[in-house]
Amino acid sequence: MSTKKPEDNRRAHREEHREQALEEHYAIVPRRVSFDWDETSLDWIPDEPVATHVINVLHLLLPAGERWFVKVFKEGLPLVTDPVLRKDVKGFMGQEATHSVQHAHVLDHLAAQRLDTADFTKYVDFLFERLLGERTPLGPLVSTQEWLRFRLAVVAAIEQFTAVLGDWVLAADGLDRAGADDVMLDLLRWHGAEEVEHRAVAFDMYQHCGGTGAPRYARRVAAMAVTAPVMLYLWIWGSAYLLRHDPRFARARGTSGTAGAAGRPRLTPGRTTGRSTRACCPPCGSSARPCPATCGGRTIRRRRARCARPSTIWRSRPRRGPRRRWRAARPSPSTERREGRKRDGGRRRDGGRGRGGGAPGVGARPE
Fold first, then answer.
1. What residue segments make up the domains of the chain, in order of their start?
2. Count of Cβ atoms closer than 10 Å to residue 162 Cβ
3. Which of 188, 59, 173, 172 lies closest to 113, judged by CA?
4. For each of the chain's 367 residues, which pLDDT tens digit applies?
5. What do you get for the CA distance between the two ends of the chain, in Å?
6. CA torsion, points 188, 189, 190, 194, in degrees to nearest 10?
7. Which fold has domain 23-249?
8. pTM above the 0.70 mark?
């Protein structure tokens, strides 16, 4: 007859069930990969610069974002008591760390092709390292435990989007038909496959460490309400940044006249005043509108250059009507007297007499 208590039997049964679950559970493990970017061009989707840079925003956001995922999960790992979830969290952290490294290599490749992203990524680093860092920006108003739970909810919200993007890129046949670069597709689809693989880990982590009841659900809603618009804003901003700094469009962005404030040289000839004479079609250099060539280039609207009249020479009249008229400034009376003395060799034009007349002074000009 067994002498074990019912509680001991239940505890032993739970331990046996956990061991069996660990043996049968699908293991999430990081995969060590490497990519050769030497033959990947800046236009890795041929003739599609907008689509290329919309996808390139991933490389701007993910290095800092996925490093932050690892930091947050490392803070919450001591709170995990389920061995199955603990194993999944460790695999999740390893995969995200590898993603961050590989996307950072893409940023180095873009910089080597004269597309510097440091002016954008510094704001992304500030967002994840300072605003969402270990120390709450609200100070004592939010406890350390509550701040950790909120950040876990933000990670779970972001992982919802990355899982959808991963599923999309795995089935995106349009990228193959467009002739996209094979190395870039390998990176995106490897990343997408692992995002689909660990799509539920962040949610399970939050459910395990995020408390219970209505506060846990309300925190999830608040995290998604913050995450969705911020991600949309960063994506639009990042796409515009990449298109604006793409060196292939430097001819279209060139200004006439002297170099700009950033020291960029003048790329096309032009005058300092009046209309710019740069080409309307950057691909073929044509100045006609629409472009007569069959290059398929997009015509660019001409802009009026800034007037270069110095303010010390030109002064404006009071505004009369819709247009501003310009005239030369008249010299002041003091300037006229000074010019008169120069013409007289430094002597006064009144012969040394004051305003009221009187005897001529020494050295006065004879009349």
1. 23-249
2. 25
3. 59
4. 445 566 666 666 666 655 665 556 778 889 989 999 989 999 899 989 999 999 999 999 999 999 999 999 999 999 999 999 999 999 999 999 999 999 999 999 999 999 999 999 999 999 999 999 888 888 888 889 999 999 999 999 999 999 999 999 999 899 999 999 999 999 999 999 999 999 999 999 999 998 888 999 999 999 999 999 999 999 999 999 999 999 888 655 544 333 333 333 332 233 333 333 344 444 444 444 444 444 444 444 434 334 333 434 334 444 555 555 445 556 667 777 777 766 666 555 455 444 444 444 444 444 4
5. 147
6. 100
7. Ribonucleotide Reductase, subunit A (1.10.620)
8. no
